[in-house]
Write a structure and sequence with these properties.
2-enoyl-CoA Hydratase, Chain A, domain 1; three-stranded mixed beta sheet; five-stranded mixed beta sheet; alpha/beta; single chain; 5 helices
């Protein structure tokens, strides 16, 4: 299964995080696929807007903690992972078309930071948006 899906319909591209079993959390491969999809949108002059969404129950829960634990003792791998996420986020911030985040379910941790790179964020009434660094009580908004 592809971890990132990019579809185009007319002038709108939709980038879908496709790891519903992991609540669309980001591992290296997903962040890399995200960046590559953004580059594909960037060069397609027919695209006038980009929608970012998540497959399944959640929009995105930030970095994949299982993946992170698997690399945490390898400083080079951790550094490469962080740099790849930064490249993906920077790519979204600098893309030449308006970006719409279509949020549902959980939108947590680093993904909240990514929202700052979007031009518009639309949230379903069931969306839970928060940063776990502030604790489960103080960081989430409904």
């Amino acid at each position: 299964m592809k971890k990132i899906r990019l579809s185009k319909q007319g002038a709108v591209a939709t980038l879908t995080l496709n790891r519903p079993e992991a609540y669309n959390s980001l591992d290296y491969e997903t962040a890399e696929g995200f960046e590559k999809a953004l580059r594909e949108v960037e060069v397609d002059r027919r695209i006038k807007a980009l929608v970012v969404r998540g497959e399944g129950k959640s929009f995105c829960t930030g970095a994949d903690l299982k993946y992170f634990r698997s690399i945490q003792d390898d400083r080079s791998a951790v550094r490469n992972f962080v740099l790849q996420i930064n490249r993906a986020f920077d790519g979204l911030e600098n893309i030449c078309v308006p970006v719409i985040a279509a949020m549902h379910g959980h939108c947590l941790a680093g993904w909240c930071e990514l929202l700052q790179s979007c031009d518009l964020a639309l949230a379903s009434t069931e969306a839970i948006i928060g940063d776990l660094r502030f604790g489960a009580q103080g960081g989430a908004a409904r």
